[in-house]
Amino acid sequence: MNGQALQTPVEYLKGVGATRAEVLKKELAIYTFDDLLKHFPFRHIDRTRFYKIKDINDDLPYVQVIARLLRKEILGEKHTKRLVAIVQDDTGIMELVWFQGIKWIEKTLIPGKAYVLFGKPSSFNGKAQMSHPEMDLYSPEAAKRKGNLTLQPVYSSTEKLKQFTLDSKGIQKLVAGLLEQYGNTISENLPLYILNRFKLMGRADAYRNFHFPEDAIKLAEAQHRLKFEELFVLQLKLLRTKLLRVQKFKGNIFDKVGTYFNEFYHHKLPFELTNAQKRVLKEIRQDTQRGVQMNRLLQGDVGSGKTIVALMSMLIAIDNGFQTCIMAPTEILANQHYQTIKGVIGDDFLEVALLTGSTSQKARRVIHERLESGELKILIGTHALIEDKVQYQNLGFVVIDEQHRFGVEQRAKLWRKNTIPPHVLVMTATPIPRTLAMTLYGDLDVSVIDELPAGRKPIETLHFYESRRLRMFGFMKEEIAKGRQIYVVYPLIKESEKLDLKNLEDGTEIMRREFPLPQYHISIVHGKLKPAEKEAEMQRFIKGQTQIMVATTVIEVGVNVPNASVMIIENAERFGLSQLHQLRGRVGRGAEQSYCLLMSKDKLSPDGRVRLNTMVKTNNGFEISEIDLQLRGPGNIEGTQQSGLLDLKVADLTTDQELLIQIRKFVEDVFAKDPQLAAPENQVLNQAFQSKHAGLSWDKIS
């Protein structure tokens, strides 16, 4: 948006003032005129249609009714006070109820008068009801709404805002005033050739018609235009960042594959690589030969063999005289990487060190010295790796596990550990739908491992309702008799939630009765245990001293027990899809057939049913993530909250996937023809970058 006018603090808008401005800032993060303009209505209501009382039901959204007020009264005591009014039309009677602003509303209601009512219908004891309806005195003009909007915007508001008469109607009034006064300062930010090619509405028109559409067609055009703009500016920024990085950061060239890689590949690799692993290694190999700094995202399900690919890439770096490191988000994961890599390469092959918050001062000193001298080639740890006092002699390759827990700034800190920034491989076990990856990681190249290592059998998933619990116990006993171990997981939504702990405790009681000592041994792990106790219980299970581990979701990350072949998830309907998928990935680590049993109550919500059916139907993390995206929306997919990238006001990655793919391709073409955006027709795009309000600030990276 052009000009400074729209960056004016919101308190200066007519009808706002200091007090209302404070509430708008706190409740809706509206600081400027521009923010208010981008507080779009979440739906529009057709105010030309009127319903009869007999025709309304709970399933309808907001409806409009003309009815006469028969009577009104205030009922209840102090805390349960409510205002109830009865209205009637020629088909029936309806109850209106208010819980707030009772005194003020009661004064305005005149029995005997006809009103135009507007609200969300519900039913109470079989009778039609409406809570907190909007009410206007009826007049033939009001009914026809001459010169008025046929499609009325509905804005999200909060209880706090309503106290300052900033309900949907109040916000509507402010936006209307803003557009009237400043609508002509909204300038175009897309070049004419793009507007023509994609048949897009002009920007100022789009804002007007999104808030106050002339008709449904204009509303759809306005929404499309602003979605396009939002995704276009986002992809423009992401791809330009990538382009600038390629120009700005030269990369170390790994021009040889040497002794370490070959020795490992021919003599130490515990299994044959899958085609997907070979393909990813080749992509990384090509990246590291181009003289450009690599930034690659490696996506792969739990157990798909990402760590081996990372290790082999690190060995190429070491063969070329560089040091490497792996950064994990938690000590448990850092430890697991350390154990895995030590286990695969053996003690006499290469020195590997572990650096976390728990590393002693003495051990730290040794690590620091060996890093600076260049003797230590592989360092594994948590964010302790990016502390200023950790100095490398020649860091050439960095692996970051579970990217979404590290911000762009933390990545940048690692880059500065060398004069030529190291190549970066980012790994994630959270399968991310393609469109989301394009947005979240649009500045990275993406590799995918989409097949499991040979010999791994797909996990068989079954869904049992509560009524089949005895069958579940029987199944557990059969598997234990074969020498297998079993996880039983209870949902823990919050560490302290009493209900969850009770579920765990009751469940454990039942387990102890069904699986009595001395024949069976049970480990119990939950958040209330001290770390040492937790570790001791885990170790008993890992060593095979207990056959069953009853746990809250603490086992989700970092436990690898090849002999555990059954995962039972209690109250499975309370977990999200990606969480269920992550939990299931804890089994299936050995060569035996593994099972995941989803236990649920007999009655399920439609969403719950879709989630559990999806789990039974597929083991493919990418399919699961697509369905998860449709069910939950992008803002709730793991990790996207912190990214700040998905603060999309209009576009929706669930429904606008095709548009995003089309835009991404088009932006790539724009940069291919005009990398600097120097052509006269692209000047308007260049200005979009100068405005910090046009989207993202990537200055932290360089």
From TrEMBL:
NCBIfam families: PRK10917.1-3, PRK10917.2-2, recG
Function recorded in the entry: Plays a critical role in recombination and DNA repair. Helps process Holliday junction intermediates to mature products by catalyzing branch migration. Has replication fork regression activity, unwinds stalled or blocked replication forks to make a HJ that can be resolved. Has a DNA unwinding activity characteristic of a DNA helicase with 3'-5' polarity.
UniProt name for this protein: ATP-dependent DNA helicase RecG
Reaction equation(s) it catalyzes: ATP + H2O = ADP + phosphate + H(+); Couples ATP hydrolysis with the unwinding of duplex DNA by translocating in the 3'-5' direction
UniProt-listed Enzyme Commission number(s): 5.6.2.4
Superkingdom field: Bacteria
Pfam families from the UniProt entry: DEAD, Helicase_C, RecG_dom3_C, RecG_wedge
Family of this protein: Belongs to the helicase family. RecG subfamily.
Keyword line: ATP-binding, DNA damage, DNA recombination, DNA repair, DNA-binding, Helicase, Hydrolase, Isomerase, Nucleotide-binding
Residue ranges of every copy of the Helicase C-terminal domain listed in the record: 468-635
Leader peptide range in chain numbering: none
Domain Helicase ATP-binding: 287-449
GO molecular function, one term: hydrolase activity
Entry-linked InterPro entries: ATP-dep_DNA_helicase_RecG, DEAD/DEAH_box_helicase_dom, Helicase_ATP-bd, Helicase_C-like, NA-bd_OB-fold, P-loop_NTPase, RecG/Mfd, RecG_dom3_C
Coiled coil (residue ranges): none
